[in-house]
Amino acid sequence: MPNLLIIEDEAAIRRVLSKILKEEDESYQVDEAADGVEGVKKIKANDYDLVLCDIKMPKMDGVEVLQEIQKLKPEIPVIMISGHGDIETAVDTMKKGAFDYIAKPPDLNRLLNTVRIALDRKELITENKRLKRKVSKNYQMIGESEAMTKVKDMIEKVAPTEARVLITGENGTGKELVAHWLHQKSERAKKPIIEVNCAAIPSELIESELFGHVKGAFTSANKDRAGKFEAANGGTIFLDEIGDMSLSAQAKVLRALQENKIQRVGSDKDIKVDVRVLAATNKNLKQEIADKNFREDLYHRLAVILIEVPALNDRREDIPLLITHFAEKIAKEQGTQVCTFTNKAIKLLQNYNWTGNIRELRNVVERLLILGGKEIDDKTVTQFSGK
Ligand SMILES: Nc1ncnc2c1ncn2[C@@H]1O[C@H](COP(=O)(O)OP(=O)(O)OP(=O)(O)O)[C@@H](O)[C@H]1O
């Protein structure tokens, strides 16, 4: 239900605006303030999705109110209402951050349109914030073992630089998580991180996926299309499972890294790109080089910094923390109660041979939560863990 506030000293205009808005949409909750001071007080006390604010008012004028809102709650869009004499001021308020302005007497269509657009934008901003919070929660990195501390320290050091990083480690150890942290803690964090799973894309499509193509480059290319490198411009590209990339794609990636230029498939026009490259693999690339499956020159370009993510079996001391973390997370996702694990149950899980690493540990915790009840003991673990 959108909450709107009208700040206007002329009672008649306040009433008209309020009526128009309520008639337009029954869900609009419209509140009123008779001057700037009252308006600011209300904004401090309540959550509004939109403020309509007159410019000329006694006590505190609209420009001051706007500045106050931007200090208090900058996410609220403000639409200024201007009289004949203050159109110039109204235009000026837009430079100061007002969403828009409408002239008195208000044109109905224009007013409703502006209100709708402002509310949509506010919703997008809120949604965006929520998603960002969710993403950063999802990418929590648990672990205080020596091995994990080393990884975290390395991330802190390397993330703000432009260095390319090769992340190695077994499946499910958290390589993708490391890549996201490197991006989030870099200057490029405001731009996207684009992930490409090189193993999941057929080799004949990988070049077009990475570099895009022009119409007619191949049978199904019915229009020009940008690739992932262009999409990541200004940000980061994360080439996951790079050990599975075809040799011809490797040659093109090498060129992109050497020259910061790419060409769409089917075109010889160079496109400049500014992309930081992070790559990950669970393969032993040195062995792949020896077997002629991976280019040595590309390896050296990619592995400026190497981060090796330890296997879970090499950092068992993190297992109790991870169990609690996943137990809480899963309970939250499923809306169930958080369950506890007895010391014996934790010991048992600590001593397993984890071949699927953290991903496998999460699955086991989930299975136990579903089947085991409120307290998980060693017997339940033996019964249900499926190990
Ligand atoms: N240190 C950690 N703390 C909490 N969760 C983690 C940690 N490391 C990994 N995870 C979680 O474990 C799962 C697997 O991690 P991720 O996908 O990063 O592994 P990966 O090494 O990239 O796997 P793959 O090689 O299969 O692509 C994800 O759900 C991730 O959020």
Describe what this molecule looks like in 3D.
With 387 residues, the protein is an alpha/beta fold. The chain has three domains: 3-135, Response regulator (Rossmann fold, 3-Layer(aba) Sandwich), CATH 3.40.50; 144-310, Rossmann fold (3-Layer(aba) Sandwich), CATH 3.40.50.300; 313-384, Helicase, Ruva Protein, domain 3, CATH 1.10.8.60. The protein is 48% helix and 16% strand. The strands form five sheets. The chain has a five-stranded parallel beta sheet, with helices on both faces. Helix 1 (11-24) links the parallel strand 1 and strand 2. Helix 14 (343-350) crosses helix 16. The protein is globular and about 80 Å long. The protein starts with a strand and ends with a helix.
